Amino acid sequence: MYRHDSDELRAARAQLVGYSARLLDDGLAVGSAGNISVRVGDVVAITPSGVSYAEMRAEDVCLVALGGAELAEHTETPSSETPMHLAIYAATKAAAVVHTHSPEVIALSAARQELPAIHYAITGLGGPVRVAPYVLFGSAGLAAAAVTALDGRSAAILRNHGAVTHGRDLAQAYDRALLLEWLAPTYRLALCYGEPASLSAADRYEVTAEARRRRYGERRTAQP
Question: Is the pTM of this model over 0.85?
Fold first, then answer.
């Protein structure tokens, strides 16, 4: 068990405050909607319930065990979606989870069963993004629905609710949330022209293999 005042957890809390402010700036949430967490060993640092991101401080971030128990006295209450975050950590190798209420994704969730592969960038999310059935927020049922929709994926859409992404760190999980919110309006625009073509599983595999070969997206110093 990590000490509640460890350097890693202090850093995670500070990072959560910074990325929470970005949720507002990037239009992925309003007020205190959505939530973010980071896993440090067997401890999860998660944003509090009902605290505006514009006012959040590092000491407001809550700490919970992977089993759900609160690990320190908090002035705030852990996010109502803590069960979903913990379920995702239990089912994946994620080190960070981002849950957004982004408008384009919410609109798509009310009208479609999935976000299809209309652009090769979706391979960064594992493929077409499933829309999980509607379940009450904060419930064990929502946690289970999210985990099912995430099978083989790093992003899922929650019907009439929002989206959830995960990654090896908070930067990756957040970038995936941004990518998802970019893909949704791109799909909406494509629908204006008719039925969009989608990349096949073979196409997506080819993209993934080539991206791995080229180390696509990685910053590398040019060799002399």
Answer: yes
